[in-house]
Amino acid sequence: MHTYLGYDPKSFPSPTAPAPDLAGAAFDHMLEYGSMRDFTDEELARAVRLDPSMFPMLGPSLESIAALLRERRARILAKYETQAARKDAREGVARERERVEPPKPYREDFRKAMDQEQIRDLERLWYKQPDESSPFAKALLRLIDRMGDQYQIEQMAAKYEFTGQTRMSVPEALEVKAELEEIDKLLEQLKKAAENAQLAIIDMDALSELADGDALEGLNQIRQQIEDYLREEAKRQGFRPDLKKRGHVRSAFDGRYRFTRYFSPLDHNDPATLDDLFKWNDVELYDLVADPAEMNNLAMDRKTNAELIATMNGKLSAVIKAEIGKDDGRELPDIAGITWGLDQIDL
Fold it and tell me: What's the number of domains the chain is made of?
């Protein structure tokens, strides 16, 4: 069923993935909600509304590249067939299943997961294992990997109409799927760029791997013209990041709970009460043992989790005091007219 619902288990972290990237999530939030840095080319493209007719060669250039990508996709679909890879992937899952000998307490859960072909249930079963190096835990990981390959190939066969005769191995099929999806993504980016002249949204690195160099040269020239125009327009309109947005981060992890405060760079604070905490910050609190995917923000239920929130806030404050000292933004660069402190709200 997960195939038809679009559930892609291969895009979820493996059970053996490293500890959560706390900094990555924090910086994603900062980029979304504000920071001190200058606008990127893509942000400028989104901030300034452009009329594609201002750049007459843009449309033909984008269409020529899109035609090349559509032709490349058509050649792939006309060359390959998927039956062999699908058969090999199913047999790979079957072979791995035959090798697995689940301990008695886990036999029923294992049987249900395999009967329903649910990767997420196998991952839950893996998390229940007291020893991740046990033969059963290792066998589960191999089975999850094989089932993930099968899922991806079945998804590709359902999405694209292959008409060729060339057989693919499982690894080859996965490579073809990745290329077809990259082409689809680029075509969508080209379509949007033709509508709003936002060339910065195009993944030029990926495009250079798939499109002809001569076609890209003309596009790069147009892109430079647009970027130059955007920079001048940004200066004229006085664009700058909104420092009132809560894009700065302080975070602590105690081995089980991840606690994070997001605040404006103008509003450094050391909250001693829950009222002050939620007044000056957006708050996240996740139990990474019970909720490793961080789907349930415990800070949303302030009343029920008040004691835990206060405890983690105290731990974070202690870490800040030990590692930073006075957290007033003194580490930030000097910007004329801005004092990094709670008493400074407006630019």
Answer: 3
* Residue pair 156/76 in contact by the 8 Å Cβ criterion: no
Contact 264, 244 (CB under 8 A): yes
| 93/123 same-domain check | yes
Q: From CA 322, how far away is CA 326, in angstroms rounded? A: 9
State which residues form the domain around 98.
Answer: 83-159
- Burial bucket for residue 74 (CB in 10 Å: 0-12, 13-18, 19+): exposed
Name residue 90's beta-bridge partners: none
Q: Which residues contact 102 (CB under 8 A, 6 or more apart)?
A: 110, 136
Q: Is 267 contained in some domain? A: yes
Q: What are phi and psi of 345, to 5 degrees?
A: -105, -40
Residues sharing a CB contact under 8 Å with residue 205, sequence separation 6 or more, in sequence order: none
Give domain status of residue 66, yes or no: yes
Task: Using a cut of 0.85, tell me whether the model's pTM lies above it.
Answer: no
Is the domain of 207 the same as that of 261? no
Residue 150 resides in a domain: yes
Let me know whether 72 and 181 are in one domain. yes
In a domain, 10, yes or no: no
For residues 220 and 87, membership in a common domain is answered with no
Query: Could you tell me if 194 and 52 are in contact, meaning their C-beta atoms sit under 8 angstroms apart?
Result: yes
CA 226 → CA 50, 189, 215, distances in Å?
A: 9, 16, 17
User: Same domain for 122 and 151?
Assistant: yes
pLDDT tens for the chain, 347 residues long, are 344 344 454 454 455 555 444 444 444 444 444 444 444 555 545 555 556 566 665 666 778 888 888 999 999 999 999 999 999 999 999 999 999 899 999 899 889 988 888 888 888 888 888 888 899 999 999 999 999 999 999 999 999 999 999 999 999 999 999 999 999 998 998 888 777 766 667 777 887 787 766 667 767 777 777 677 667 766 666 656 677 788 889 999 998 999 999 998 888 889 999 999 999 999 999 999 899 889 999 999 999 999 999 999 999 999 988 888 888 776 666 555 555 443 333 33
